[in-house]
Specification:
The chain is an alpha+beta fold. It is 41% helix and 13% strand. It is built from 16 helices and 13 strands. The strands form three sheets. The chain has a six-stranded mixed beta sheet with strand order 4-3-5-12-7-6. A hairpin with a 2-residue loop joins strand 6 and strand 7. The radius of gyration is 22 Å and the shape is globular. The protein starts with a helix and ends with a helix.
């Protein structure tokens, strides 16, 4: 399948898209260097986003110029970042700072993660965007991203998709007019991974609910939000082109051409829409399952500090992260060079595209629902949920209830 380059920079938050992870050689961690007769503790950084490697090296050089503290950015050139990180950590050559994607990865690496809860600058993290393990803050978000219903303002009045029944009738009306009212695509997260977040995320306590599913205390099929979700997927199958025939590029391309009124996508689609030079305004609306009125906003990757280092190196790593998120120079790198939507409320974002602006406003206000897929069993989306969804779209006799039963079985298989 074909992936647009802009698309790749937008989906760094999903465990399934590890094409953005990387390995690399480099030094063995912090260094001791002489600076004006005083010993200075250097630090090293190993992280998974290959598209910011050069920019991060520039930030490291700027920091060293300002502070005299040497920062080594260990190269990231492949797709086995997690494996390479584990090797480095196991043999005590781990970096001072490294990236972790989500709760599942943080749990696996918990013994190496330094608790950053007491640092002043973490108080500026947008509501609910920090990575927590129980009462410990172990990950500082790179930036935020979000997804929902991306719509063509020339074709869709947001008032007509503000509740579930209106959304369904709008999709059906578009179908009668020969327009695709709601586009998905065949890639795992764009077929089922992201949209499956909603029935989990609108639970009172999504993580506790997922634990109950894993422990057999509740089933998806008996949960009203999943029953309604299965019903909606029937609507999509009956009124839109088969998403298995669409790639990300054709999904967004059809939207840009006015052939599709709405797609389920994230702010990362703005890059491809710019390439198409669309001549209409776009917006992003919440998916109104069971009254939901919030965008799904989350974090694709987080900065973590290696708690296995000596305290001097830990302190030096924290100082770098503090500089990155509070200094004028560091904030400029985050917004302009890395191209992130800030996950810190103290950072001005500058000019953003409409989709990213919607995500930023939701994040800063705290009016969001979480990315529940960050807490799914490992690899359940590509390995288990996707085959279930593909079967649903191939077999028109399968009901929405049966789809949910298959997702339940998929969850149980992945959680073993």
């Amino acid at each position: 399948m074909t992936f647009n380059k802009k698309f790749l920079t937008g989906i760094t938050f999903t465990a399934a898209l590890t094409v953005l992870a990387a390995c690399g050689g480099g030094g063995d961690g912090g260094e001791q260097t002489e600076n004006a007769g005083e010993e200075t503790t250097g630090i090293s950084i190993f992280q998974s986003k290959v598209e910011i490697s050069e920019q991060l090296e520039a930030a490291a050089a700027a920091y060293e110029e300002e502070t005299g503290v040497p920062v080594e950015v260990i190269g990231t050139t492949g797709d086995d970042y997690a494996q390479q990180l584990q090797i480095r950590l196991n043999n005590q050559t781990g970096p001072s700072i490294f990236s972790i994607q989500n709760f599942e990865e943080a749990t696996r690496l918990e013994s190496y993660l330094y608790d950053l809860s007491g640092e002043d600058f973490v108080g500026d993290i947008a509501p609910d965007m920090e990575l927590m393990l129980e009462d410990k803050l172990v990950g500082i978000p790179y930036g935020v991203e979000g997804f929902g219903i991306v719509y063509n303002k020339d074709l869709v009045d947001p008032a007509d998709i503000a509740d579930y029944d209106s959304l369904v009738s709008t999709i059906e009306d578009f179908n009668a007019e020969g327009i695709n009212g709601f586009g998905l695509s065949s890639e795992a997260y764009f077929l089922i991974g992201h949209i499956s977040n909603y029935p989990f995320s609108i639970q009172e306590d999504p993580q506790a609910f997922m634990d109950q599913v894993t422990n057999g205390e509740v089933t998806l099929a008996e949960t009203p939000e999943f029953q309604k979700f299965g019903e909606f997927m029937e609507v999509v199958r009956e009124n839109t082109p088969n998403p298995l025939d669409k790639t990300y590029d054709t999904q967004v391309g059809d939207f840009a051409a006015g052939k599709t009124a709405m797609i389920h996508q994230g702010n990362w689609a703005a890059g491809m829409l710019d390439e198409f030079e669309v001549d209409f305004e776009v917006g992003m609306a919440p998916f109104p399952l069971e009254g939901n009125d919030k965008l799904a906003v989350g974090v694709g990757s987080n900065w973590a500090v290696n708690g296995d280092k000596d305290q001097a190196e830990i302190d030096a790593a924290i100082e770098f992260l503090n500089w990155l998120h509070t200094s004028e120079t560091g904030q400029k790198f985050i917004v302009e060079d890395f191209g992130f939507i800030p996950a810190m409320t103290n950072i001005e974002a500058g000019d953003l595209d409409p989709l990213s602006q919607a995500v930023l406003e939701a994040s800063n206000s705290g009016e969001t629902i979480p990315w529940s897929h960050n807490y799914y069993p490992a690899n359940v989306v590509p390995n288990d949920f996707t085959p279930a969804a593909e079967s649903f779209f191939v077999n028109e006799d399968m009901t929405g209830d049966e789809l949910i039963e298959n997702l339940q079985a998929a969850w149980e298989n992945a959680a073993q």
